[in-house]
Design a protein that fits this description.
The chain is α/β, with parallel strands linked by helices. About 40% of the residues lie in helices and about 10% in strands. It is built from 10 helices and 7 strands. The longest helix is centred in the first third of the chain and has 22 residues, at about 15-35. The N and C termini lie far apart (about 40 Å).
């Protein structure tokens, strides 16, 4: 059933926030931080950010949301609500209850559904910040799909900033089809960018393209610095598989720029946040 307007208060209510705090800090984060080596970059970009806002990020792993929630300061993550596919996470209570508990999740319609239409905007009007993956679904290959225009339209209509985030290494740490992270504490980098707003007269499609390019830039700058696959690498592998299926030879890649010799995130510790707070 659709959420009633009277139900929106639960997304910022104190009892639910306290329950999420316990679940996130004493169950979710300790496990994921013990299974991964999480490194956080760009925290200075969060200094002036205030709710409501929208977070966008590339999405290729089930660890993505946990890493985002666990890396944000409490003042920003307290009421953060993650958009989740209504047709997958909210059809059965066995899926919806833990998703709500850990991620303050709310239903997003896809595939022509309309039962929850407008809920993202209503939450923003209530002061609730949102996490939305604008690709629409997890990548099966690590390669990013183009962003849908919904986030840009919400940002313009409700006059809220968009925080771009890149997740680097999450696909390798727990690729599509895996139920647990791979052994050995694989490295995952989370990179916070500068909050963005639409430029004067900028259309939603142009704004969407700019947000997409920003996430790719954050991803690839960090990936090159740490010797990890870039989006160009993921796209190349995708094209190679498609070409192999058609028995077509691809032209060679153009020369890649050399790895930077300096830290791409000066002034920040390279180790990030390996251990959860006590």
């Amino acid at each position: 059933m659709p959420e009633d307007a009277d139900d929106l208060g639960k997304y910022s209510a104190t009892p639910q926030a306290l329950a999420r705090r316990v679940a996130q800090q004493f169950v979710m984060k300790p496990y994921v931080w013990s299974a991964l080596s999480v490194n956080v970059h760009g925290e200075r970009h969060l200094d002036d950010l205030q709710a409501p806002f929208i977070i966008v990020a590339n999405h290729s792993s089930h660890v993505d949301t946990t890493v985002i929630f666990g890396s944000l300061p409490r003042r920003l993550s307290r009421n953060l609500a993650a958009g989740a596919a209504a047709d997958y996470f909210f059809k059965q209570k066995i899926k919806s209850l833990p998703t709500r508990l850990f991620f303050n999740a709310y239903p997003i319609d896809r595939g022509g559904m309309r039962a929850h239409q407008g809920m993202s905007g209503k939450l923003l009007d209530e002061g609730v910040p949102l996490l939305i993956y604008p690709e629409g679904t997890r990548s099966r290959t690590g390669a990013m799909a183009k962003f849908k225009n919904g986030v840009a339209a919400l940002s313009i209509q409700h006059d809220v900033p968009v925080l771009p985030i890149a997740l680097v290494g999450a696909y390798a740490a727990m690729p599509y089809g895996q139920n647990l992270p791979v052994p050995g504490r694989p490295p995952v980098h989370i990179v916070f960018g500068n909050p963005q707003r639409a430029l004067p007269g900028e259309s939603a499609p142009r704004y969407t393209e700019r947000l997409y390019n920003k996430v790719v830039e954050l991803h690839d700058t960090t990936a090159r610095a740490y010797g990890m696959p870039t989006q160009a690498d993921f796209q190349r592998q995708l094209a190679l598989r498609a070409a192999a299926a058609r028995n077509v030879e691809l032209p060679p890649l153009p020369p890649q720029p050399p790895l930077p010799l300096q830290d791409p995130h000066p002034g920040e510790p390279a180790g990030g946040t390996d251990a959860p707070p006590a």
